Amino acid sequence: MIKVLIIEDDPMVAEFNKRYLDKVDGFALVDVVHTTKEAKSVLELEKVDLMLLDVFMPGGNGLELLREVRERGLAVDAILITAASDTEKIQSALRFGAIDYLIKPFEFDRFKQALLRFKEKQTIFHNSEKLSQDEIDQRLFEPEKSEMETDKSLPKGLTKNTLQVIVETIKELKNFSTDELAEHTNISRVSVRKYLVFLTELKVLEETLVYGIGRPVYQYSYKENDKVLEGYL
């Protein structure tokens, strides 16, 4: 299990991060702390593989903590989860060895993507004493490159990972509404709607407007036309 320390001063955000973490297999929560001082205490006493780290916190800065961790040579990786979106903060985080950078607010699928990337690389390191150049290129860096190239063929605002989650879910549901799909995928209704429009245009889904009590509801049915998705997934 990959042991995770959540470092977040906002209790509500910390709770969301904790709930999100519980949904991803292979990760175990060590603790949730709200200051860098508390984080240092945990790091001294507990084995931590990954920090989910905020930048702005009372009494200390997340980037300063990350820099100190690097100076001390601790074998701890970090994913920054913060509202700080200025390039200086992002560049500093990368220089200090952050493996990913999530800007609040973010959706669960992006959070899950960051953790699964980390988990995949940890598996590679733990199972191999040496790596060839081809293995480094294909197993550590090429997947991210391929993902970026695939995303370019998708409409603006859509990503491969989210599309994968939605397609897998619609195959299970077969018939559903926008709200039902949003509930099953834990993706916002607004985001889900964008993917439904895209899949309807590809003829993967058939859309029907159903009238009843209250506002009309769009109902969708899966047409099992997966060939048109080749190159997108």
From TrEMBL:
Keyword tRNA-binding: no
Coiled coil region boundaries: none
Gene Ontology molecular function: any one: DNA-binding transcription factor activity
Residue list for modification 4-aspartylphosphate: 54
Protein name: Response regulator
Gene3D superfamilies: 3.40.50.2300, Winged helix-like DNA-binding domain superfamily/Winged helix DNA-binding domain
Subcellular location: Cytoplasm
InterPro entries named among the record's database cross-references: 2C-system_Tx_regulators, CheY-like_superfamily, Sig_transdc_resp-reg_cit/mal, Sig_transdc_resp-reg_receiver, WH-like_DNA-bd_sf, WH_DNA-bd_sf
Principal subcellular localisation of the protein: cytoplasm
Keyword annotations: Activator, Cytoplasm, DNA-binding, Phosphoprotein, Transcription, Transcription regulation, Two-component regulatory system
Organism, as annotated: Rossellomorea vietnamensis
Phosphoprotein in keyword set: yes
Taxonomic lineage from the root: Bacteria, Bacillati, Bacillota, Bacilli, Bacillales
GO CC annotation: cytoplasm
Residue stretches making up the Response regulatory domain: 3-119
